[in-house]
Each structure stands twice: as structure tokens, then as C-alpha cells.
Amino acid sequence: MKGAVIGCGFFAQNQLQAWRDIDGVEIVAICDLDAERTQQCAAAFGISRTYQDAEKMLADGGFDFVDIATTVGSHRALVESAAAHNVHIVCQKPFAENLEDARAMVNAAHRAGKTLMVHENFRWQSPILAALQVVRLGKIGKPFFGRVSFRSGYDVFSGQPYLAEGERFIIEDLGIHILDISRAFFGDAKHIAATTRRINTRIKGEDVATMLITHKGGATSVVDCSYATRRMPETFPQTLLEIDGSKGTLRLDADYKLIVQTDKEAVIDVSPPVLAWAQKPWHNIQESVLTIQQHFVDCIASGVEPETSGADNLKTLTLVEAAYLSAAQGRTVPVSDL
Ligand code: NAD
Ligand code: 89Y
Q1: What is the pLDDT of residues 255-293, one digit of tens each?
Q2: How many CB atoms lie within 10 A of CB 274?
Q3: 3-class state of residue 36 by DSSP
Q4: Is the CB of 74 within 6 Å of ligand 1?
């Protein structure tokens, strides 16, 4: 399969590295509004076709899919254009700025008959996959309570300065992943109640969010996120879990320690590997980039919809919007209202 990447910024480096590791995939063209970035990436990854205009690249064609690694403001136009040019699409999270755009993007890919996957990679992290396997195999019975927690004081603003500038921060940027993990474990949501705070006064948006979700299947989950938490050891970028089921409990503790307690206890080291091109502490995220991109390729080859498809991601985005609404209005929001 031949691919093209749009956006050569901070995170695209991981995506380009991962594409190189996937058998049968070649990135043949790249594009960024910034000519210097495009040239740097082209040189680093040996890609000969470079563009500053995505429309021109799509019109020239010669590839089967595009990987959109730009920030959210450009996603709708790029996804619609890619669909119009009949290529499969991977698009970074947050998928869209609002639900209307997101629905239009899903419809555009559907009309074109092309696969659309959102690069919602946190549920693809190997420690999360290990925990999901325990739950899906029924080892702790039916889950009735969960805590999905991401608390850190890591400086994400130096690598991603735009995160300090938006009216929205942690729910839209990071909470979106943690809400998606909650959906992966406990299924779709019925209601959400959220509170938000801004502790770091040098940024515009909220950096703390505490969310309580009632799931359709009967479980309740607490999804708590913070970038204002000074803790030692720093756990960035680990998502910690605590799940109570009818037959036992599961915890994913700091340092990738998975503990499953039923009539006996199992303690398993689920540390992710550090890929050849990865750096700690990002290695957990970086490995999941390879896993999700491999999933995209496998889904296209077998004609199956990706687990984190555009259509699936509408439900995660709905939770993001519902959480902001709940925090703004101080009330529990039925997800079906959005
Ligand atoms: P960035 O600003 O470093 O890079 C984005 C690049 O896209 C820039 O170089 C910009 O010039 C380019 N661009 C913007 N609009 C364009 C257009 N229309 N055509 C061509 N190029 C265009 O941003 P980043 O930190 O790399 O983040 C990109 C996306 O990745 C964001 O949506 C972010 O939320 C997401 N992200 C995801 C993860 C994850 O784990 N899934 C981690 C970090 C960032
Ligand atoms: O942008 C975010 C993401 O998706 O994962 C971590 C991050 O880079 C900072 O919160």
C-alpha cells in the first residue's frame, strides 16, 4: 500500500517512523504548509514527493491512503478532500472541532466507500490491551465500577505550544483518550457529569477534569485527568486503571504493573517495549502508534471496519462535548441530548 502524510509536525514524526516499520507500506508523498518542515521530513524519511498544498498532492494521487497528522482546525477540509479523491483515511484526534463537522466527515468517507480511522491510539497501548484482554475474557466477571485515571505534571506545552492557547485543553486533548478507554472497557455512555478547573494560570484552558459516567451496560466509571498534578514518580503518559467486577478486581498501577485479584492474585509486568526509534517516557504512546497503524492496514486488507473508526469516534467526541456542557452548566448531561 502506498500512503501520503499531511502535516510534518511534532507527532507526525512518530507516525512516519511507524509507517516505516509496517511491511508492505510505503509513504510516497508528504505535505506541510511549512516548506522547511516538509523538506526536513522528506530528507529524514527519504520521501521524494513534497507538497505545501494538500489539495495538489491529492489531485496528483498515486497513493491508496492519506494519514492526516495536522491539528484539528484543518481536519474537516482535509478529510472531505481525501474522500473526494477516493483514498482511505487516517485522521488524528481530536477528529473534529464539533459534532456537526465530525458527522459530515464520517458521511463523506462513507459516500466514497473508503475506510476512515481516527488515530485514537491510547486504547491500543499494550498495557491497556493487556487489561482489556483480562476483562474481555471474563476473568474478573462483569465490571460494575471503573476508575480510568491520567494525572501528571509533565510539561506538554514545550513540544505542543498550541495546547496552552486554546479555550479548551485537557478534555479535548487528553481526556478524549481517557474517555475512549472508558468506552473500550465499559461500553457506551448514558450520562456524564463533569467538573473542570484551571490550575496553571499560564494556559488558557482547563487542566483538570473529573468526570463521572453512567454506562448503558450498568457500570459506572470515574474518568479523572490532570496536568496540574506534581507527583513523584511522574507517571506521564500512563493511564492507570482500577476495575471492580463481579468475580474480582483489576488494577493497572504506576510503572505498568497489572494486578488481577480473583480467588488468587496475579501481578504482571506489562511494560511496553521501547521501539528502536522511541524515547522514554513517550515509548508507551509510540508503540501504540505502530499498533494502530498496523490495525488500519490489516482492516483495509480484510475489509473490516477499524475498531476506532470515524463512526466509532463520534461516540467519544460526543462524550467530550457532553463533558464540557456538563461542566459549564453544572448538571448531568444525557449523552443522547447531543
Ligand atoms: P504540530 O503543530 O506540531 O504539527 C502540525 C503540522 O501540520 C504543522 O507543521 C502545520 O504546518 C501542519 N498543517 C496544518 N494545517 C495543514 C494543512 N492544511 N496542510 C498541510 N499541513 C498543515 O502539531 P502536533 O503536535 O504534531 O499535533 C498534530 C495532531 O496530533 C493534533 O491533532 C494532536 O492532538 C495530535 N496528537 C496526537 C497524539 C496521540 O497520542 N494520538 C499525541 C500528540 C499529538
Ligand atoms: O496531545 C496529547 C496526546 O494525544 O497524548 C499526549 C499529548 O501529547 C499531550 O497531552
Answers
A1: 999 999 999 999 999 999 999 999 999 999 999 999 999
A2: 15
A3: helix
A4: yes
